[in-house]
Amino acid sequence: MVEYPAYRDSGLPWAAKVPEGWQVLRNGRLFGHRVETGYPDLPILEVSLRTGVRVRDMENLKRKQVMNRKENYKRAVKGDIAYNMMRMWQGALGPAPVDGLVSPAYVVVKPFSETNSAYFSYLFRTTAYMREVNKFSRGIVADRNRLYWESFKQMPSLVPPRAEQDQIVSYLRAQDAHIARFIKAKRDLIDLLIEQKLRIIDHAVTRGLDSSVSLKPSGTQWLGEVPEHWEVVHIGSAVQVVNGYPFDSGLFDAAVGHPLVRIRDLYRTRTEVQFNGPEVLEAVINTGDLVVGMDGDFNAARWLGGRALLNQRICCLRPHKKITTEYLALVVTKALKFINELTPSTTVKHLSSGVVKRLRFPIPSKTEQLQIVAHVETETAPVNDAISRTKDEIKLIGEYRDRLIADAVTGQVDLRGWQPGPDDAVSDDMLAALGDDDSNEFDEEEGNGED
């Protein structure tokens, strides 16, 4: 790839030079505002923070959403850009693939004839442009800032000639196809490694480490037989279950208040938001507590982020003296795997704390628990390392993609002579792999526009 033969000053701090022949125009010169409601029969659209807008799969939602008053949803015509007013700074935008409906919390803009909305979707999701979105957004607190149409239309954008917009989009889609194939292969490898890890855990928590001991029926389907000297009890008799609390989202804050653990924070060590209200003591958790995500694919993880509040759709399992948290984490991992496999994928998955309390699970002696945990840690260490390395590779290719896009949409490389090769075939299904890395990366807005 080579640079353009000549550049000029753009007058913009986030893109200092642009190719000769490119313009800098305000978005109001490129898009009109579409505000159309009353189309309840159109499909619901959702936005991926990395890949844009697509039709929502209503049969396989990770959590049930209220779709009341669909007549208030906004219509987006194929090719329109829809963006979330509060989350455009994170990349929550994209061109509509078909005519569909978006939440009232979205703005829908229709491209004029010389505007390729796919090019501008790439541009708007660059890091530099998303910083500009923050500058033009308005709100009472930073975490609740909104980019209204009146501000969006004042924002300046880089505008190549229409033919170059089309060429840039073709090039980036071809590169995305190659990147998506790489990412899919890496995710398939991670799935295999996780299965290997789960097999190690399964055997340890159902059979123990001594293969010579006699076994007995556990009385529960997901366990099968267990060592004869093990006790089998209900979780509710050995663990304190702390339910999440329905905190008011209007009091969420980016920096002020109590750390609030939401389902998207399950594998993190810090929270995205704080609760700027009184601390609810019955929802307090601490470092080392085992938290369980109860919607979508059920998962459990140790919370390592210090004192925090637990939001709804998560519960905390805090063991009594006869069981260690480390051993409990292994048993719950095994139990949730069974429940996930048992729950049909076409059903909205939800796990109640009552179901968790009724789960029967085995308790060996404290000495055996410690031995089992140590064994699992030793046996799974190489697998965990391989998973971590593979995730790092996916992250690096994502950073490479971001750089590739930024260079293309800001004119740092001249793509006018690029021609697709035989391996540059692209399909929307293929590109879907770009957006599946994080199960929580979909921007899900309720019908009333609340996050």
From TrEMBL:
Which domain of life, per UniProt? Bacteria
Q: Where is the composition biased (Acidic residues)?
A: 435-451
Task: Cite the residue spans of the region called Disordered.
Answer: 416-451
Gene3D superfamilies assigned: Bipartite methylase S protein (1.10.287.1120), DNA methylase specificity domains (3.90.220.20)
Q: Which residues form the Type I restriction modification DNA specificity domain?
A: 227-395
Q: Which UniProt keywords apply?
A: DNA-binding, Restriction system
Q: Which InterPro entries match?
A: Restrct_endonuc_typeI_TRD, Restrct_endonuc_typeI_TRD_sf, Type-I_RE_S_subunit
Q: What Gene Ontology molecular-function terms does this entry list?
A: DNA binding
Q: Could you provide one GO biological process annotation from this protein's UniProt record? A: DNA restriction-modification system
Q: Which Pfam families match?
A: Methylase_S
Quote the PANTHER family the UniProt record gives.
TYPE I RESTRICTION ENZYME ECOKI SPECIFICITY SUBUNIT (PTHR43140:SF1), TYPE-1 RESTRICTION ENZYME ECOKI SPECIFICITY PROTEIN (PTHR43140)
Query: What's this protein's family per the entry?
Result: Belongs to the type-I restriction system S methylase family.
User: What name is this protein filed under?
Assistant: Type I restriction modification DNA specificity domain-containing protein
